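As agreed, record copied across for absentees:
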Amino acid sequence: PDPKEHERVLQEAVAVEERRNAAEMEKKAPISSGMSEATKAFILGDSDSSSDEDESDLEDTELAPSKFHKQKEKVSKSKRNKQKRARHEERERLEAKKKRKLENLVFQLPRFKKELKKRQEVNKEIKEKKQKRDQERVEGAGTQIEKVLSEQDPLAAPTVPVALPSEVKRKEGSLRTIVPKGDLVTDRMASFALRNLAPRLPSQAAAHRERMSRKRRRSKIKVKGGKDWRGDDFVIIK
């Protein structure tokens, strides 16, 4: 290959692997990097000030004169009944409010279902448009198929099939002779099939099953009496 073209393909392969490594590091990175120094200083400063306030409050309580607890005032029976009725009415009011809230939610359930269905349809349409756009981009990528797939999904993108400089056999300063990698026709057909430019080839197992299903069933012959046999001394098993 041309030295400049070989260098360009090598740079493209390195860029694909760098994007893959960056995606793997981002996937393994923790969600939070911990508390910043400013936040730590702010919390420590608040804790120091709160401890100082606690100590000053403790000193004030020690210096303050002791007070006698005021004795509870006696409540009459009618007043107790009135308080009991008030608590009961408050409890009933809260229960009625909770019941009305549940009824409103039940009445709004069809509207929630309709909004959810509409949102799902919008998300599905957005997803289909994105898939179609990615597929069109892949089909029109041409020889830049690895780069396009790497930009879409770096972790699942294939590696660029290129030989390293150490693997290139130099002969009188030429790059004409290189170590072969794979089969050119097979790789080209796989690239065409990936871009929907050629039909996808069935696997070897599927091809074998198809070939065996088309093959006619042969009759098996069992010979009697060893080598010396006559035309009527054998049985045909179908």
The chain has seven helices and two strands. The CA atoms of residues 39 and 234 lie 97 Å apart. The helical segments are 3-28, 37-63, 77-107, 109-139, 145-152, 184-194, 204-214. The longest strand covers residues 220-223.
